[in-house]
Specification:
The chain is built from two helices and 68 strands. The protein starts with a helix and ends with a strand. The strands form 15 sheets. Strands 24, 25, 26, 27, 28, 29, 30 and 31 form an eight-stranded antiparallel β-sheet that branches. A six-stranded antiparallel β-sheet has the order 1-2-3-59-58-57, with no helix packed on it. A five-stranded mixed β-sheet has the order 8-12-13-14-15, with no helix packed on it. The chain is mainly beta. Strand 33 and strand 34 form a beta hairpin. Keywords: Signal. It holds the Pfam family FlgD_ig. This is FlgD immunoglobulin-like domain containing protein. InterPro entries: FlgD/Vpr_Ig-like (IPR025965).
């Protein structure tokens, strides 16, 4: 079936500029409501019901889920009164540096750049004072952001800044061959910058980036030989060498942390960190196991007598790696013992607070993300205190489908990989949405993967296989199984992806131009192409394929199980190029192929299979049960036309909905009567049509007449319905005696059951012939229920 969405995007003359202009013009237009009075709204945990304008039912509004990856709130420094951070912006603009006080106040730190004159180094650590450079003058403003007061310090000519701790600035100077030969402790006394020179121990030389940790009193520095680190007293200038105990004599991958009581350091690749008492750095060292987190790189910190570890993500090893929320935050007792997990996910940021503890960012997921303070309780165990919540941002949704009351959304970043998410929606006086569940992964981008809901809980889409250069039709069923098939044995460019036309239960229609194929995903031996047609018009209803033989005004119904063809003639003498089917209604459209009078109006309409009458429509659209939905892309409006009486009424507006290039932003549930649309911000809406539905019927059935009973096997009949059913039961009888009553499982507008040839107590029934009876009621309460009967012969296998 060539949908209206595909026709719209294939039509020549609709320029990108006009689409963009329309999007901009409608960005401020509020969503419209249906014309009839609305009933009171209802709310539920999954979504909010709003007014739709139908007389007896309300709509369902479902906000976009949160992005899987939390908003990044990067830390830069932490002191005893607050911390410095920058929170990722929504529009991609540069975030400002903010000082967040532990009292909840937030102040912008103007002029802070994350570095000071010279070179980038280790700045603003363990302090409430931040270094703000004044241009390139070599003057640094040491600013106390909580009060706005500051002190200016001048970096002497020839020195480069490598660290800042409170009112102390560390710089380096170089020898004749540009090796760092000295550290300088700079302070301001009586308005004058003083310089305390620090020489390296004999036989050692400072690393190019010497400072790895510190607070207002001490700094930990690296030497070019990684087997030794140094603890620098910032008050006296005394430098104490410490044997690092690292495995590799390389300084660049050594990190450290300083707390009021301990100093810890860790070399990337080792399984343990070293911890010493701060008041005895050359004393006994304790080795503390560093928990691993896959290939991620541990980052160490301290809180009381606990070693903290967060994790810096390792480089991706695949082209499209899954999204990640972050590694865990763990705490390991310095005295020995197993690590405990403080946060399920956290950014690698770990900044020590001079008075004790650390600041980090993390949570259980994006909806629980926050800046948190790690401290110790009265019992010495680490605890967490939330300092500032980091609200999640909505995920990007780019595709929607609705079938049998199953709402499907193609979501780019609400899960580790792009995925199809589905949920059961029910409309009526109290609309509700069930929990979201992932059906399967989705292709990246908009060209591929626009979903179709097949009415039985399954999702059908197209993906491109780069290895074979083939388009593959994929079906992800409600039971978790997944099947795929290449409809054509020829290469296609990886930019097509729009050949999926229709899906119903086990079948799908695919093709382009005047070529169509029908795929049976449950064919014996696996998915197979069961029909190849030279026609642009093909659609499915249950196990019936609706198409045309090319004769003007001719359509035909082809039973895919028996091959029987039943012809019909509609009121047009043109070659039909689009067919859509819902029960008694067959929508046909010549799409500019009028073969008689060249009528610019180009015939289209609906044929009523019950009365044999044609229904004239005011506009082309997507067929529902007794109505069509038209997306007026020029006006940016979604409209519904009710024709269930045999005469089309005046179109009524459902909502303002701009056209979008590349993805499907609305759908009609031909297995239930709802209409769904998707806003560009990811908000989904589902509204009832307000049109009386046809009675519940069976459109396809798979109820084998024989069952060979073996261990682990069951008789599994299935029925595709015209709309969802409820209260379905399958009764097994021997003559008039009921042997077993089973609840049939509903998935979309389909029912399945399973019987293993036993009674309720597990006793096997004798081999022989039994009868079965299926009963079900329509979920929407419209019309009578169904009762189906049949016979089953049970035999015993090996």
């Amino acid at each position: 079936m060539r949908t209206e969405f595909e026709r719209t995007h294939d039509t020549a003359g609709r320029s990108t500029a006009r689409r963009l202009a329309l999007l901009a013009a409608l960005a401020t237009v509020p969503a419209l409501t249906l014309a009839l009075p609305a009933t009171a709204h209802a709310e539920n945990a999954a979504g909010t019901a709003g007014t739709t304008g139908t007389a007896e039912a309300t709509a369902l509004t479902l906000p976009a889920p949160a992005k899987y990856v939390p908003v990044q709130d990067t830390l830069y420094a932490a002191g005893d009164t607050g911390y410095l951070h920058r929170r990722e912006t929504t529009d991609g603009s540069a975030a400002t540096y903010q000082w967040h006080g532990y009292d909840g106040t937030e102040r912008t730190v103007d002029g802070f750049t994350g570095k000071v004159p010279g070179q980038q180094g280790y700045y603003g650590a363990g302090t409430d004072i931040l270094p703000v450079p004044i241009g390139v003058s070599g003057v640094v403003e040491l600013r106390y952001p909580a009060t706005g007061t500051s002190t200016q310090l001048t970096v002497p000519e020839g020195q480069s800044t490598v660290g800042s701790f409170g009112t102390t600035v560390l710089t380096t100077s170089y020898n004749d061959v540009w090796q760092i030969d000295k550290l300088h402790i700079l302070r301001v006394r009586d308005g004058v910058t003083t310089d305390t020179v620090v020489d390296p121990p004999e036989g050692l030389r400072f690393d190019q980036y010497p400072v790895v940790a510190g607070d207002g009193a001490v700094a930990v520095v690296r030497f070019t030989r990684g087997h030794t680190i140094g603890v620098l007293d910032l008050t006296t200038g005394t430098l104490t060498p410490v044997a690092s105990g690292v495995a590799v004599d390389a300084s660049w991958n050594i990190q450290a942390a300083v707390s009021p009581t301990h100093i810890a350091w860790y070399q990337q690749g080792m399984s343990t960190a070293r911890v010493v008492r701060r008041d005895d750095p050359t004393g006994a060292q304790t080795s503390v196991a560093v928990p691993s987190s896959g290939a991620d790189i541990p980052v160490v910190g301290l809180a009381g007598d606990w070693l903290l570890t967060s994790y810096r993500p390792a480089a991706a090893t695949e082209q499209n790696p899954p999204l990640r929320a972050g590694g865990p935050l763990k705490a390991t007792p310095v005295s020995g013992g197993s690590p405990v997990t403080l946060l399920a996910a956290a950014q690698p940021d770990l900044f020590q607070i001079p008075g004790g503890g650390a600041v980090t960012v993390g949570g259980a997921d994006a909806g629980d993300w926050a800046v948190r303070r790690v401290e110790t309780g009265a019992d010495g165990a680490p605890t967490l205190r939330t300092l500032s919540e980091v609200p999640a941002r909505p995920a990007v949704l780019r595709g929607i489908a609705l079938g049998g009351g199953q709402l499907v959304t193609k979501e780019e970043d609400s899960a580790p990989r792009p995925a199809y998410q589905t949920r059961k929606v029910t409309l009526g006086a109290a609309p509700a949405a069930g929990p979201r569940s992932e059906v399967t992964t989705a292709p990246l981008g908009d060209s591929y993967g626009q979903p179709l809901a097949a009415g039985d809980g399954s999702v059908v889409h197209v993906r491109h296989d780069d290895a074979t250069q083939r388009d593959l039709i994929v079906r992800a069923a409600a039971d978790g199984t997944r099947a795929e098939i290449a409809p054509f044995d020829r290469a296609v460019p990886p930019t097509s992806g729009r050949g999926l036309r229709d899906a119903a239960g086990r079948y799908a229609v695919y093709g382009g131009g005047d070529e169509r194929v029908v795929v049976d995903f449950e064919a014996p031996g696996g998915p197979a192409v069961v029909q190849r047609l030279s026609t642009p018009a093909a659609s499915l209803w249950g196990s019936t394929l609706w198409t045309t033989d090319g004769t003007g005004g001719r359509i035909e119904a082809r039973d895919l199980a028996t091959g029987q063809v039943t012809p019909y003639t509609v009121g047009a003498s043109c070659q039909i190029r689009d067919v859509q089917t819902v029960g008694r209604w067959v929508y046909w459209d010549c799409l500019g192929q009028d073969s008689v009078g060249g009528d610019p109006a180009t015939p289209f309409g609906v044929y009523d299979l019950e009365t044999g009458a044609d229904v004239t429509l005011p506009a082309r659209g997507r067929l529902g049960d007794g109505f069509v939905v038209n997306h007026d892309t020029d006006a940016g409006l979604l409209r519904l036309t009710d024709f269930h009486t045999g005469t089309a009424g005046a179109p009524r507006t459902l909502t303002a909905l701009p056209s979008v290039p590349g993805w499907k932003n609305y759908d009609v549930d031909k297995f239930g009567g709802g209409i769904a649309w998707l806003e560009t911000n990811g908000t989904a809406h589902v509204v009832p049509s307000g049109v009386p539905a046809q009675p519940l019927t069976v459109t396809a059935a798979q109820a084998p007449a024989t069952y060979t009973r073996t261990t682990g096997t069951t008789w599994t009949p299935a029925w595709q319905l015209s709309k969802p059913a409820t209260g379905a039961q399958l009764v097994i009888k021997r003559k008039t005696k009921t042997l077993r009553t089973l609840d049939a499982r509903a998935a979309g507008a389909a029912l399945t059951a399973a019987w293993d040839g036993t009674l309720a107590d597990g006793t096997r029934v004798p081999a022989g012939t039994y009868t079965w009876e299926l009963t079900a009621a329509p979920e929407d309460g419209t019309g009578a229920g169904i009762t189906l009967t049949g016979s089953l012969t049970v035999t015993d296998g090996a």
